[in-house]
Amino acid sequence: MRKMPALYGLPTARQIYRVTNIEDVAAEWAPGLRFLVKIATEDDVGTVARLIKSGLTGLSAAQAAGLEIGDIVLPIPDKDEVIVLYRESDLHHSLFLTNRCNSYCLMCSQPPTKQDDSWLVEEAIDIVRHIRVSPSVLGISGGEPLLLGAGLRKVLDCIEKFHPETHIEVLTNGRLFCNPRTVEVVLSNLTAQATWLVPLYGHADFVHDFVVQTPGAFEETLAGLLALREARKSVQLRVVLIEPTLRVLPELCGFVGRNLPFVREVALMGCEPIGFALANREQCEVDLAEWTGMIDQAGKLLRRLRVPFVLMNVPLCALPKALWKHAHRSISDWKNVYANECSSCEVKDKCAGLFAWHERGWKPATIRPITEGAVL
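The line above is the sequence of Radical SAM protein; the predicted structure tokens follow.
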């Protein structure tokens, strides 16, 4: 989420708007949508005012250098600010549905709260309606989206209605799918293209339940995964690479390959150094370069068991070259940075880089430029 200064030339409601420009606003306008016209001069304000007078409702105007055409924004006029909720030009796109959760993971980057934030569902639907170019992939995250039940289903159906070609990725711990009622409400007759991204942090309850700090979570997660299989839904399993999971990584990968053959792929992910991870630094701060043997062993095991896998949030210099082909540029655009050491790296444009707050937290490994002419 990006926040930036903005000066509003006309009365502006605190609602969702799509950013456009003077030249395109008349052609782009549609009833039921709101448009924030990016302006540069007082004359532009007058032009927008005349358009409103001619019958184009839902228009406002603002000066904000950081805005891009196609942004979906929430104006904060009383503070002369604007929040960019969705940026068309980003590589990754997602909707945030709730900050509530039923797990308390050691490394949670978004520590849960208990307040009712069900209004985020309507905000997400409004964002979806205002997106002008359908993204190839749209993520849904929280918190735990399954806590929303029918609200989550409403968002999924809305995405399918307005962007039928968009593939949805739902980040969920999957635990509530152990309840047949949740399965019915969320999955019954669901036709939206979706992959369910479900974390599994151990091959046994004593590991997984410790990482998520919730007794019984392992059994509920497995029941949820089986419910997704029964509904014939695509599943990606996610493993965050912190000390407790790294110690059992080969056992976990073996468990997945032998017992969960329906899983589409496994994602091995670097830890985001923020939120609960900072409070649980002893378990979460690892130098992945020191664990490459374990990661390589897990990768070989997954290949042998014919389970596709990807590496996410991990810079290439932390990995043996044999694993580079599995590494993805996966960090969201607004939180993705590179260290000074990366400036001379020959594979920087193919590397995931670092989280923007690594200076407050830690780097996933000692960062070193790759300058031997290595390419992916």
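Note on the example: DSSP finds twelve helices and 17 strands in the chain. The mean pLDDT is 95.
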